[in-house]
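I can't quite decide. Please look over this sequence plus structure tokens:

:::
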Amino acid sequence: MRKVRCVMPALAALCVISTPLFTSAAVVTFKEDVAPTGTYASGIATVRSAGSTNTNFGSDNAVIAGVTTTDTLRGEFSFPVSSIPALTTVSSVTLTLVGGTNDATSTTSVSPVLVLLDSSFTESTVNYTNQPTFTTNTVLSTLTGLNPTVSFAGTTFTFPSTAAFVAAAQAAIDAGGSLNFVLKLPNDTPGTRNILNFVSDDPNASGAYTTANQPTLTITTVPEPTSLGLLGLASLPFLARRGRRRRGAGAA
């Protein structure tokens, strides 16, 4: 139950609710062609080094992170988040991916990371040569111990929320821009083969389009106080002046 307390008894009309009123928390999902609207577009593309530094893979149905003996592969992600009002407080952020295909020749324990990018990119033109930098090397989230050799295809994986992930999303929302990050291995120098193949946001070779398996960014915001109390405080000077005028008239 909310208690009501009157401020300045002489002004009986001004009372303040002693416990704040709050709006409900919101969970916003970002998924191409699905949410927040049917026209929403994310930017997702693989970039790779060996022999493909200037090749764009933005229309591929897979987003890949890993290495081979000669190649480095990274998955670039850009999610516009301007539909969330600036200064909305973020409480958690997660990224959900679905495994694409198994890679039988990879090792059995791989721990990919999401790293904050310094800038956004264009899905249709990004490649290994022009990919955004990540100079701060800020790790937003990690999945530990994935096994890409078996039981990977069709499995759902969720990168958990962290303080760094929340801070990055908060900054992107306040700027009215995009949350940009790269999916990679912690050490992606070419070497022993480790390949993680996830479903992207584009149709497969046959044109089929399974939206349920597309990458999904989920942002949860905390409840915010309503403006009711602020409106009451804003009216205090007006009511005080009104009270003084009445007392002055009575004395006359």
Residues 140 and 164 are 5 Å apart (CA to CA). Residues 236-251 form the longest helix (16 residues).
